[in-house]
UniProtKB/TrEMBL annotation:
It comes from the Bacteria. This is Cyclic nucleotide-binding domain-containing protein. InterPro entries: cNMP-bd_dom_sf, RmlC-like_jellyroll.
Amino acid sequence: MENNPLTQLINSIQYLFPLNDEEVRLLESNVTVFNAGRERNIINPLSVADKLFFLEKGLVRSFYQKDYKEINTEFFFENEFFTAFTSFLTQEKTNLYFQCIEQCNLISIP
């Protein structure tokens, strides 16, 4: 599993609670690994967050716009999970952007 791009994700989850081999296979078969360039939006306002993301490599910020200014709300670093959590839990639209500050390697979890 050392060369597996999901190693960091699985290790992060197993830090919280153990996964058996079947659970690891289920996780591996249901996630999407992808790359996103600088300034790419991963989540946009007026959308419903329906995925959880794991940031394997890179840096992501969340922000909203007010009076033509961008107001940062949070920064996400390597080996962290992120999404618009309120939207994810309520299935209501978010007012936040989630944007890559640099080239990112991400894992999308449905």
